[in-house]
Amino acid sequence: MANANLYDASGKSKGEVDLPAEIFGQEVNAHLLYEAARNYLANRRSGSAHTKDRSEIAGSQAKLFRQKGTGRARVGSGKSPNRYGGGTAFGPKTRDFSYRMPRKARRRALLSALSDRASEGSILVIDDFQMDEPKTSAISAVLGEMGLKGSKVLFVMHEYDVNASKSVRNIRDLDFIIGSELNAYQVLWADKVLMTSSALEQVKEVFGS
Hints:
The chain is α/β, with parallel strands linked by helices and about 210 residues long. About 35% of the residues lie in helices and about 15% in strands.
């Protein structure tokens, strides 16, 4: 069974906590992790790139000058892609890149990611704490006490906390997520996954067998 270092609310070490093998002790499936990361990034794409083709360019449809008698090459519409100000040929169009990954595959990928981080000793647990006001320096001090400065940290809480979210958003390489919304990509992104005690219980409840 994997273990995680346990810290109090001020960031001081207070021992270890056991991590359930059904979540943190699974075999790592590298291909599923790749598929999960690819799916996450595809779903996040806006797909808003759009160029106008000749049918979308504003302007006259008239032939620019007569076919014969000018001594120049024949020419048709001014909207042609080979003319300045004309439409774009084969340019990108607005599209939806998102697709659905099977739920069981997503869950297996998440368990693989959590198991990989647990095997490295990168899962950390901290006692729940309350913030009466947004204060970045308070979170930064806790991270410093835990020796996490300079690492990419995924901070997992059991519910959305306005004060906590406002406190962490100004810290470089620190991301915030709710335990029930964990995904493989963000776990893989982080060097360390820092969970509150309540968030760990939530992860056990939601993702446990």
